[in-house]
UniProtKB/TrEMBL annotation:
Pfam families cross-referenced by the UniProt entry: SusD-like_3
Residues annotated as transmembrane: none
Protein name in UniProt: SusD-like N-terminal domain-containing protein
Provenance organism: Butyricimonas faecihominis
Annotated SusD-like N-terminal domain residues: 22-204
InterPro entries on file: SusD-like_N, TPR-like_helical_dom_sf
Superkingdom of the source species: Bacteria
SUPFAM superfamilies: TPR-like (SSF48452)
Amino acid sequence: MKYRIVKYIGLAGVLLLGGCSDWLDVDPKSQIKQEALFESEAGFRDALTGIYTVMARTEMYGGNETMGFLDMVGQVYTDVSINYEDALKYDYESTKVEECIDAIWRGNYNAIANCNHILANVDEKRGVFSSGVYETVKAEAMALRGFLHFDVLRGFAPSYLRGANVAAIPYVEEVTNKPIAQLTVAEVIDKVIDDVEAARKLIKEVDPIGPSFDSYTEKGYETEDYIQGDGFWLYRKSHLNYYGMTALLARVYLYKGDKTKALECAKEVIDGEKFTLLEESQLGDGNTWGSLCSENEYISSLYVYDMEEGRSDVYFGEESTVQCHISDTRRASVFGTPGVDIDWRNQNTFFLKTGEAKTYIGKYRGVNRIPLLKLSEMYLIAAEASGDKGYLQTLRDHRGYVNYPLEENCDLAAEIEAEYRKEFMAEGQLFYYYKRLDYNTLPDMGVVMTGNYVFPMPDDEMEFGDIK
């Protein structure tokens, strides 16, 4: 089967940058403004920044693919507003749910198209770049292309465990007006790995947050190199940096079932010591859980300037549009005993608004980043891939369980599941965790998941080619 995805190809990545309203009329057939954009290093940097801006939209990782739709179908929430109730029932044909699913498909391929625009021009224009910028721009565009395809695959195709050789999605590597043929699940996974491995190799020696630099901090830069180029080298945690690429590979390899490579990548992130798990001494003193995690544990994240108004207040609260709510009963089930009383996440990531009766998730209050990859996931991947409960115990120690060690003969898989449920609320990862392991039913739910793990592709994507 071939899919018509070229309708999303354009320079949409630069649309939301300040002062760029004149880009709204960019058409894929018009090359004039594209050529002007890619005449300078600043243009490439802006185009790259634009991709992250597109990804942070509510239709994508700023909502649907994190705290919104994906956590609805992952049954994180007990109830949502009436407009989104069909998502909890896996009614993928209802109007509001179909809109969410279609927006994920279109948004991801739109961002992929912008990655390809950069990659189509970057080698030819290598001479316009200052030291390290060419490698970084190209590497991030390649790695983002892999990241975005991987999430389309996880949503719109069977899991690797369920159907590695089943026809899946197109993997788009060029700017083209021709329909793109489907690849199998396994073929897409291999393409993702090829892109991200190549990107990681390219950026390794130049990324300030990579292994070639002894230390990195997002505050108090001492080296002028970091603030050259309009701050391009600042805030590497808000980009898919070297360790973000490595963490992504750990996630992809585990999805594929390659535990050896998954462990290798997860350990590299952990052992790199560029990120640290929270300490109890950091809690309090006005620090929010979200701000502490973003400063210490986020490996790669998206910057959202209006996080509270534009995201948290939209999804969480009785007056919010979406009203994603977890009941006290569900919350008690997730955190268990003694977690309800001692787990730092239970104590610090929920809030009750004045005058309201329900408690909502508050991890995005007072922060400006949404996590894409976190250090805690690397510990969970390392524990699963190695069978060593020490990784899991380390994470638990940094979540309040230092006096509650795992039993010697504990059910490691069950303990890992418990941590995923506590750790990734409102982050869009639980649904994919259950799908990867082919859960027949989800915890606290009696719904049989057969058929519910694969989102339907937009109707207008199936107009061309032989439908199989």
